[in-house]
Amino acid sequence: MTSRVLRWLAVTATAITLSTGTAVAAQAADNPYERGPAPTLAALQASRGPYAVSTTSVSRLVATGFGGGEIYYPTSTADGTFGAIAISPGFTAYWSSISWLGPRLASHGFVVIGIETLTTADQPDSRGDQLLAALDYLTQRSSVRTRIDSSRLAVAGHSMGGGGSLEAAGDRPSLQAAVPLAPWNLDKSWTELRVPTLIVGGESDTIAPVSSHSIPFYTSIPAAAEKSYLELNNASHFFPQTTNTPTAVQAVSWLKRFVDNDTRYDQFICPGPSSTSISDYRSSCPLS
């Protein structure tokens, strides 16, 4: 963006601010992707964010490269387009196992597609490909494509779906964020990753133990990519399959920060959460 355009934006925002008595326009000029009110911990811990949400189904028959799923999207059209997230369930599981994430994330100003996989036995590399195929469907063919900013996309997933989100982030470095939950993958090194990545692990996970999955994944990602690791106290491998507020708080904060460029959420990432429900937190602070 040229300095002339930046000056024009600043002057325009200032003029609008003076006429309305608020700083909303100035903030919008500074960051055109900022959505929703200033965040508070209480708002992030609530079961829903500030946006009303609608849903629409994607039939397996019309999906290409993935098995269909559910789309959740803000009903508001006043704020322009939104960033989008594709989420995969884990090995042998269906989207219904983690479907609470759909409306929870969408209500904070994202379009979310929770996918069904081609088969429930699909491995992480296949799930990564399916997440990217779902994003392509979402931005190019879906009924909500006009609500999405296709330059601001992210992936997430549970277990092998979490491992798949690492695969997707490695394959498509233009993604803005990845959020693997209790991720499982035989590949332990992700030095090639450049996508800001939040990994959430369960301290008592015996299927994808954090010592051989989440922590090595986190450690191998370059700090320059921006990364955080949240470990839930005494949590099993299946913590994403029921509503988990610490996961939601951190996932929303991460996605708002890196998909929406919203620095108002820095406070929840650096230095990070402190709670008896959290056994470990690491981050590549400071944010850039």
Automatic annotation (TrEMBL):
Residues 1-25 form the signal peptide. Residues 27-286 form the PET hydrolase/cutinase-like domain. Keywords: Hydrolase, Signal. SUPFAM superfamilies: alpha/beta-Hydrolases. It comes from the Bacteria. Coiled coil: none annotated. The keyword Signal applies. Belongs to the AB hydrolase superfamily. This is Alpha/beta hydrolase family protein. It comes from Actinoplanes sichuanensis.
